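Figure 3 (text version): structure tokens given as input.
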């Protein structure tokens, strides 16, 4: 009898430990994360093997995307900026209905009908799940986008843009001798145009740095040029630059990148590159995969 109880106790403990281990691996192991995160890990590893990605930790997040937000607003689930909640919902979770609307079906439609969508904000690289579907087998193009968003973080673009704007506005006041009280509207308009111009410059700089990383990683030199053409067709980017837009038009963007690629010397650049180590951490509950340089 004692031996049977002892055996039963051992079985219960084994099952408990096994269940705990299975849950832990499911929640934190990179072996069991969604395929899109595995793709990010593989592609960023390729970039990091030949490029320094800065000294900061870089979390990656995959969410539903802007289509989800638009449809949610149309269906009366949210208004204005509160719809960001639906845009950023985790597409790998299941949700209860809201006001009779099937959120899971809305997420599925977002995956099907949304396109390429990615940005860097607060040190996080964010991509819609539909981005992976849209690029399909063109993982090289996807890596151009990853390199572009990583570049925004490496350059700390938000802070840099604020500094540039401050300097340009100070020069604007001196040059035009603006009386801010009397000419508020003129100053506001000029400020908004300057913000857009500085933003466009940062986008082209991110394009160039991404292309550099792609070339260093062993891809053909024109990979990101082809990706910009692909992106422009898919996202219907206008050819000419709009001075009120945060992003340059296709023609300006293509020309800027082509000029860089024609002059870039990979062999010279790689002389100063020093290899380094990094690790990855996956968190299913937070829906993040984080790149961590060795120093961290």
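Below: residues designed for each position.
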């Amino acid at each position: 009898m004692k031996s049977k109880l002892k055996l039963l106790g051992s079985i219960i403990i084994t099952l408990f430990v096994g269940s705990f281990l299975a849950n832990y691996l499911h929640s934190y192991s990179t072996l069991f994360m969604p395929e899109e995160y595995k793709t990010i890990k593989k592609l960023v590893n390729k970039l990091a093997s030949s490029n320094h990605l800065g000294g900061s930790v870089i979390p990656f997040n995959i969410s539903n995307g802007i289509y989800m937000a638009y449809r949610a607003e149309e269906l009366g689930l949210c208004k204005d900026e509160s719809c960001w909640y639906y845009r950023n919902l985790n597409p790998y979770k299941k949700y209860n209905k809201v006001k009779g609307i099937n959120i899971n079906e809305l997420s599925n439609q977002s995956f099907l009908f949304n396109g390429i969508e990615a940005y860097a904000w607060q040190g996080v690289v964010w991509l819609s799940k539909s981005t992976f579907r849209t690029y399909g087998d063109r993982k090289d193009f996807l890596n151009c986008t990853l390199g572009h968003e990583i570049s925004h973080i490496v350059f700390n673009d938000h802070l840099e843009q604020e500094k540039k704007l401050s300097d340009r506005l100070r020069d604007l006041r001196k040059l035009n001798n603006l009386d801010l009280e009397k000419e508020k509207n003129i100053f506001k308009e000029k400020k908004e145009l300057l913000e857009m111009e500085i933003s466009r410059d940062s986008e082209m700089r991110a394009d160039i740095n991404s292309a550099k990383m792609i070339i260093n990683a062993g891809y053909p030199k024109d990979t990101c040029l082809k990706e910009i053409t692909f992106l422009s067709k898919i996202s219907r980017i206008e050819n000419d630059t709009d001075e009120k837009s945060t992003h340059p038009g296709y023609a300006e963007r293509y020309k800027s990148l082509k000029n860089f690629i024609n002059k870039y010397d990979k062999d010279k650049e790689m002389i100063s590159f020093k290899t380094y180590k990094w690790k990855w951490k996956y968190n299913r509950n937070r829906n993040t995969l984080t790149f961590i340089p060795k120093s961290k």
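The chain has a mean pLDDT of 89.
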